[in-house]
Amino acid sequence: MADVNRGNRPLSPHLQIYRPQLTAITSILTRITGNALIVGALLVVWWFIAAAKGPEYFALANGVITSWFGDLVLLGSVWALWYHALAGIRHLIWDTGRGLEIGTAEKLGWAVIIGSFALTALTVVVL
User: Fold this and answer.
1) Number of neighbours of residue 95 by Cβ within 10 angstroms
2) CB 65 within 8 A of CB 74
3) For each of the chain's 127 residues, which pLDDT tens digit applies?
4) Confidence (pTM)
5) Using an 8 Å Cβ cutoff, are 113 and 76 in contact?
6) What is the CA radius of gyration of the chain?
7) Cα–Cα distance measured from residue 38 to residue 74, given in angstroms and rounded to the nearest whole number
8) Kindly report the CA angle at 98 between 95 and 103, in degrees rounded to 5?
9) How many angstroms separate the CA atoms of 91 and 118, rounded?
10) DSSP 3-state of 34
11) CA distance 102 to 23
12) How many whole angstroms separate alpha carbon 6 and alpha carbon 10?
């Protein structure tokens, strides 16, 4: 059997020296924004159901959605929608075999992040 000296070696040295890559962070954010969009969609569906139920229930739902917390959730949903859409376009580009070089992939990652914030600001200004 191999002589393995487990007592003197660190458990995970890569955790001390690893720097998260932009492509990994944007990939994780794509999954998070996808799930956040589900929560935002459920909030909007609740608002529609409340409108169909009656004026009292709608007043409650409308009060929640138009509060500062509701505005924050809806603003986050708009950003998540733009981010998720741009990340999807980036993946379509990658599916063609283009943009997979490290430098290009990082540029596309920054384009998704900056573009999502810019489009969110544009959406808020226009609407």
Assistant:
1) 9
2) yes
3) 555 666 666 666 666 677 788 999 999 999 999 999 999 999 999 999 999 999 999 999 999 999 999 999 999 999 999 999 999 999 999 999 999 999 999 999 999 999 999 999 999 999 8
4) 0.81
5) no
6) 22
7) 12
8) 120
9) 20
10) helix
11) 9
12) 8
Locate tokens 């917390």: which residue? 69
What is the C-alpha to C-alpha distance for residues 4 and 73, in angstroms, rounded to an integer? 52
DSSP code at position 97: T
Q: How far is CA 52 from CA 20, 43, 48, in A?
A: 47, 15, 6
Contact 75, 124 (CB under 8 A): yes
Tokens representing residue 104 in the block: 């290009």
Domains and CATH numbers, the chain: 21-126 (1.20.1300.10)
